[in-house]
Amino acid sequence: MKFALKVVAVSALMAVSGISLAQKGETVKIAFMDPLSGPFANVGQNQLKSWQFVADRFSGAGNPAGVKFEVVGFDNKGSPQESLNTLKAAIDQGFRYVTQGNGSGAGLAILDAVAKHNERNPGKEVIYLNYAAVDPSMTNEKCDYWHFRLDADTTMKMEALTTFMKDQPKVKNVYLLNQNYSHGQQVARYFKEGMARKRPDVKIVGEDLHPIGQVKDFAPYVAKIKQSGADSIVTGNWGADLTLFVKALNDAGLKLPMYTYYSGVTGTPTALAAGGEGEVYVIAYGHANHTGELGKMGADFFKKFDDDYYTYATYNGIQLLGAAMAKAKSTNPVAVAKAMEGLSVKSFAGEVTMRASDHQLQQSMFVTKWQKAKKGEYSVEKTGYTFVPIKQMDPYVASTPTSCQMKRPSGG
User: Fold this and answer.
1) Which residues share a beta bridge with 352?
2) What is the three-class DSSP state of 195?
């Protein structure tokens, strides 16, 4: 009788607190929200497959909580307003975990909406896993307890990139070409700030911000770059906006060292290959030639989808969720969010840590260079070329301070 009363009491307590213990075999559904149509659809489709592939690979016995992960795609068309619609639809369908990455405008809309939803709906909280929206404000002045960033933000990538570029004596006259929204504006801003500190002799000989996803011909921009006398290009462009820019450079026969964030993203390697070998660099938290588990995953992904696996934040995201759920002994977002703060897991490039102060993942960074693939190296998009790592930087090198004043829920 006493035992029965104890069970009833514990059950009642769990019901009141909204905490459910993680059960082996329980399904955790994640809503993926990114462009699955429009100019950036090829990127969104690849990344949805990446999330689903990793979720399937590490379901059940593949994670310490023993849960099954399921990822379902929602097309937000890259729009902040559509993101709000897809978020509402996902919440209405019972999703408690959402992920998004393509576009900080959409990301900020989701961050704000999730915060408001959680405040108004205790017991139905949602966690937002940000795998690629890199606006620094999301982990600074606009930080929120329910948002966790898996990618390195613009300041971190630029801190690492300028640390590399300061030691390149050929870099003297730089042209900045970026998309005209928060990410592109910040790439330009933080490049100027970083180089002013590290190489004040470097000149900015030209700068353009162009409409995102709208330019079909970059020839006029390439003509301006040629005329400027630039010896290097820095761009944070991604997707079609980088692919078409590379095509215009090829058409003009302009071969300048180019420092980028997203040259490995769908479509751009094929455009680079059309121009042959060139001095193209990428700053990122991973690269195409990892060995071990990630190398095997890349090979298996290609075999399954005839496509490249390059969004490694999907790996870290599922690893963190599994570890946090095991630590919390629960799949409830309230318990998982608390468990994820300060959590460290072994990743493909050493240990990564979800910094508690702002929920920004701290991780190693790599500079890679575009060149012909040698035997045993991964042929990106079947081009015969690859991105070879030439420098690895420990997490502290790219780590940047945060102004986040995290407001935690009571008991958080």
Assistant:
1) 345
2) helix
Handedness of CA 368, 374, 377, 378 (dihedral sign): positive
C-beta separation of 152 from 395 below 8 A: no
Name the DSSP letter for residue 36: S
The pTM for the full model equals: 0.90
Q: Which residues pair with 389 in a beta bridge?
A: 368
CB atoms within 10 A of CB 322: 22
Give the pairing of strands 350-354 and 344-347: antiparallel
**Percent helix, percent strand, percent coil in the chain, to nearest 5:** 40, 20, 35
CA atoms of 188 and 168, how far apart (whole Å):
19
- Going from the N-terminus, what domains does the chain have, and what CATH number goes with each? 20-152+292-362 (3.40.50.2300), 155-284+364-398 (3.40.50.2300)
- Residues forming beta bridges with residue 235, ordered by sequence position: 260
Residues 304 and 377: their CA atoms lie apart, in Å, by: 19
Nearest to 392 by CA among 360, 361, 349, 353: 349
Please count the residues of the chain: 412
CA distance 245 to 248: 5
Pairing of strands 350-354, 361-362: antiparallel
Asked if residue 287 lies in contact with residue 366, where contact means CB atoms within 8 angstroms, the answer is yes
* Residue 134 Ramachandran class (φ > 0 left, ψ -120 to 50 alpha, else beta): alpha
Averaged pLDDT, groups of 10, the chain, 412 residues long: 41 40 82 96 96 98 96 96 98 98 94 98 97 96 98 95 97 98 94 97 98 97 98 97 98 97 96 95 96 95 96 97 97 97 95 98 97 96 97 93 93 53
Residue partners of 375: CB distance under 8 A and separation at least 6: none
